[in-house]
Amino acid sequence: MTHMPGVDQFTAALPNHANAYPAMGMLFQIAGSSSKALFDAQQIALLGHDADPCIAMAGQVGSQVKLRVGGSWLIASVRSLVLDQTNHGIVADIDFLGEGDEEALTGRIHRFRRGVTRYPTPGTDIFPVSAADMQQIYAADDRANIEVGTVYPTSDTRAALYVDSMLGKHFALLGSTGTGKSTSAALVLHRICDLSPQGHIVMIDPHGEYGAAFAGNGAVFDINNLALPYWLMNFEEHCEVFVTAEGAERTVDCDILAKCLLAARSKNRLAETIGRLTVDSPVPYLLSDLTTILSNEMGKLDKGTGTLPYMRLKTKVEEIKADPRYAFMFSGMLVADTMQQFIAKIFRLPADGRPISIIDVSAMPSDITSTVVSVLSRLVFDYAIWARDEPQRPILLVCEEAHRYIPSSSVGGGQAVRRILERIAKEGRKYGVSLGLITQRPSDLAEGVLSQCGTIISMRLNNDRDQAFVKAAMPEGARGFLDSIPALRNREAIICGEGVAVPIRVAFDDLEAHRRPASSDPSFTQLWRQSGQEADILDRTITRWRNQGR
């Protein structure tokens, strides 16, 4: 290591202004984003007893320090520390976050912004950042924002998320099971709803836990009231539902389905008004028409030759039509042209003070869930594309358990939903569609999707692979914060990207009981002490089980 000055040079006090703390170290190596500093171990020990929690934390991993460059204060985050025996100090890697102007009389920071205009030189003194400095650094500017918690380690500095920047470039909320991910997601969405009561938010809820949380300011749709018309599916989604064959047989079945589906759609009077009717056009048709056309096509063939694909398709269509579990989508009542009413209902057009739709897919048959999510996601995207010349109504699509629908594997079922969500991630912002991904397994997401998210809210992640995945997706300046991801407490998060001025560690606010999702962990010891009425519980449960209703 190159020779560095001893710690006796670090005790020079600041020039005369309100900040009375002496220098705690010195910069000795400078690079574009990450630099090296030498801290005075004795000075850090002294600061550790200060009443200000920010000063007391000075010099620790994840804390902030400041350096004066001309008339500005440069703020940096401490990423790593190592003991330096030669100089009796501590060598630290620091990452520059941004800069603020220095007030002439008080020496305080104001007008803080991201990025560095002018770098310091080796030998520049380093000072601790106080709670008053933190207030200035994290003070929200005039942009529309929501407050979600307090900045660590302060007790009163509020953490603000800039809504337009966060939604404009998508966001991801990550965290292992039990870290408070669902409550934090509900908190962020509630704050957005409170800010924009005429907004348009669609949330896919795979566990049925958000319905109760948004009963007051949203609409909840499940198998009982969703009434999703089957004819809104495009050809790819039809194939996922009706085609069961694999390999070469699948191609044959899909070709037959395309031909018969187009014929069924063309029977509708609407088809006459459409110049170019395709197999993807959202035109109503009767399932009975589809089976009749399949039968007629089969009748044209010589007996015993090539009728098997037609039989497979016809049997599957009739099976789904007769199965009560699929009635929310394939009921004979869903034949009318209700496209306008359905889109108005799901997209909250108008919102009337209830801007969020919770789509509870928990009671749907698992083999069709991904198709339902695919249809809803594609409707959001297609609506945005075809409404480009109209007054804009941006839509936020929030996907809980996102790794289910955007898996890293490009083979197997559910590829339609993977493709549309990947497309929204890449192109959505051009058309006013924002994507919010919530997942506990970021490493299982399709490659590239996480890097499309401009804002990342990362709660504690226990898995090494997940941590590495998130680090790869986050910007350079946030690296010091990322190392603390495994050490975060419940309902704490690192937020970085477009939605915040600089990366921050946040303790989320408490959410009122009636606004929380139904996702709390059961107390085994408490519940296992209770007994009685087991026969009635079983009777009611089995009735619901058999009726496939909740």
Topology of this structure?
Blueprint: E1 25-29, E2 34-40, H1 41-47, H2 53-56, E3 64-69, E4 72-84, E5 89-102, E6 109-114, E7 125-128, H3 131-137, E8 145-151, E9 158-162, H4 163-168, E10 171-174, H5 181-195, E11 201-205, E12 218-221, H6 235-242, H7 247-266, H8 269-273, H9 287-299, H10 308-322, H11 327-330, H12 339-346, E13 356-360, H13 366-386, E14 395-400, H14 402-405, H15 415-427, E15 433-439, E16 455-458, H16 464-473, H17 479-482, E17 492-497, E18 504-508, H18 524-527, H19 534-547
Helix pairs in contact: 7-9, 7-10, 9-10, 13-15
Distance between the terminal alpha carbons, to the nearest Å? 68 Å
Strand order of the largest sheet: 9-8-18-17-16-10-15-14-11-13-12
Count the E strands. 18
Integer average pLDDT:
85
Strand content bin: 15-25%
Q: What class, by secondary structure content? A: alpha/beta
Rg calc: 29 Å
Q: Assembly type of the shown chains?
A: single chain
CATH topology of the largest domain: Rossmann fold
Give a short account of the largest sheet. 11 strands, mixed
CATH class of the largest domain: Alpha Beta
**Parts with pLDDT < 50 across at least 5 consecutive residues:** 1-18
The general outline is elongated
**Tally of helical segments:** 19
Write down the domain tally: 3
Secondary-structure arrangement, i.e. CATH architecture of the largest domain: 3-Layer(aba) Sandwich
Query: How much helix is in the residues?
Result: 25-40%
CATH superfamily of the largest domain: P-loop containing nucleotide triphosphate hydrolases
Organism: Sphingobium amiense
Protein name: DUF87 domain-containing protein
InterPro entries: HerA-like, HerA_central, P-loop_NTPase
Pfam families: DUF87
